[in-house]
Amino acid sequence: MMKVILLLLVLFLIVCAVSASITKNVLVSIIIFMSYSLIMSIIWVFLQAPDLAITEAAVGAGVTTVLFFATLRRINAIDAQDKKEERREQDKK
């Protein structure tokens, strides 16, 4: 049973890695990257490495995600992307 769960986690990890690199929306890519880190921390727990799991959860999902969002906000990438999507929706109407 544990091997099945671990296999599903690894498959989901691969899906997150591929989709984070393919996605064109920066915000979605950051959220996928955060879920990748959380899944990786769960895998570290299954591999009986709780110190790595805590580090992965804190740094990978926590600090890195906050820094990505802060950087995007600072360079106005989030606002520019939102305006671009609004223009696309208005053009469709």
What does this structure look like?
The chain is mainly alpha-helical and 93 residues long. It has 4 helices and no strands. Helix 1 packs antiparallel against helix 2 and helix 2 packs antiparallel against helix 3. It starts with a helix and ends with a helix.
Put the structure in a nutshell:
With 93 residues, the chain is an all-alpha fold. It contains 4 helices and no strands.
Quick tags:
mainly alpha, 89% helix, 93 residues, elongated, single chain
Strand content: under 5%
Specify the biggest β-sheet.
none
Helix tally equals 4
C-alpha Rg, in Å? 17 Å
What distance lies between the first and last C-alpha atoms, to the nearest angstrom? Answer: 51 Å
Structural class: mainly alpha
How many strands in all?
0
What is the overall silhouette? elongated
Order of helix and strand elements from N to C terminus: HHHH
Share of residues in helices: over 70%
Spell out the blueprint of helices and strands.
Blueprint (H helix, E strand, L loop, with lengths): L1 H21 L3 H21 L3 H25 L2 H16 L1
Helix pairs in contact: 1-2, 2-3
